[in-house]
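Data availability excerpt. The first of two example chains:
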Amino acid sequence: MTATLTITSDIAASGTLLSVRDLAVHFRVKRGHWPWQQATLRAVDGVSFDVRRGETLGLVGESGCGKSTLARAVIGLTPVAGGSVTWRGEETVHGARRRLGALRREAQMIFQDPLASLDPRMSIAQIVAEPLVTHAPQLGRQEIARRVLTMLERVGLNAHHAARRAHEFSGGQCQRVGIARALIGEPGLVICDEPVSALDVSIQAQIVNLLRDLQRELALSLLFVAHDLAVVKTISHRVMVMYLGRVMELGERDALYHAARHPYTQALLDAVPLPDPALARAREVPLLSGDIPSPLNPPSGCAFRTRCSRALAVCATQTPALHAHGSPHSIAACWHPRTGGDPPAA
């Protein structure tokens, strides 16, 4: 992954909180009928990236590409089959348990389903206070209660909500509780696993704006997982595109959205609906051919080659590595990357 290290060579100046190298997550599954056959599902297959201090790295891709699995593996909620996760310069996967504990104290997660992520037996105050009770036992009850009320007000709730249960709240309010729980311990990194996908559009905008405001106030780093490219463009500084457990493209937001190198990235951008009906009718959206391959039997070489109109013989025999391809702001894993004059992917 030399290209990844090259494109992020300026990280030393801004600082790197999280560094992931060649991370792999595999699951053993049963296939067929009795007697069952064992097969390996490569949910994440050699992913490398960095998260800098104070930045938002957007992670996008189709459903089933391994986004949420990658997010959970980074924080230690899913066991990994290989690779390394380095937090503030210390290895957490193969290192001492105290290093993984430090990661879990300083890196928190906002889950996709806001209601399901909250314990129905606990009050909102107890839910938000739980990270402090676990990781800061030296704090007294009064100090914990004060911090909980302060955080609830910061995310748009108030003291009247503290004694209620999760089922008494709307989806947007439950997600605010989840955000408060993630931020109460003052983490350096927050992993957002599709935090707005289950919410109405108007509530999505409120949650995204809230996350942006809190990031500026608290100097947070965010790993923002989503499949909505419009939301990712709004909140992210850099964007990483995944397909079948692999990274297809990684780069600065503007460079990726205006001059995508990988055909799969361009296909995702072409699929974004336009708000103007006249422009939408005039635009011809090229459709990808074929279906998404099974992760139990991914294509050889480039994972996207079976649906790519630019695929040649080399795409089936050799797996492309991430390279800059002439652009210092974006790297792509493609043998035949798009250029500014190329037509859209077919």
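And the second chain:
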Amino acid sequence: MAHPSAPSPSPFEDAVEAVRAVTLRRDLTVHEIPAPTGLAPRALALAGDIRPEPSGESLYGTGRFLLLHDPAEPDAWGGPWRVVCFAQAPLDSDIGVDPLVADVAWSWLIDALASHGAGYHDASGTATKTLSKGFGGLADEGDGAQIELRASWSPRPGFDAHVEAWAELLCMLAGLPPGSEDIDVMRMRGQARG
């Protein structure tokens, strides 16, 4: 007697399985978080923190990665998939005033996608640098700077490569290029502020 075969996984379930199988560097802690609703019929959300403290807070950088799936293929996406990511890291205030720091952050994303073979189209985003100075009770914290990158693109299959590229971007913004695991990061005065 023939047994009915189990239903095959959906493309979204296959993508989630591929993303969950990714192994990332030890100094980047990544976990699933609840995905925002209303962006797509199906979504997977990840949170990442560079070398988090026992409290869970990271002084080096943080980010979010969303994989969205809509079989209706929204015109703006040019297909059924969209990645939305966020990456943020403190900077030394001397680097924060560099007029090219936002351009460099964007180029690191594009380079990371290329180096991991993560095919994509319709990329867009913003890179924002913020400078801050403490006053009154916060004057002792000194000057600070922060870089924040928000980006989205329509990925081609191979979703694990997109997560790896996002993870590389997070580490680059935190001053941890590929191959720098277990190497101390120099902290500048006031750098931990955002």
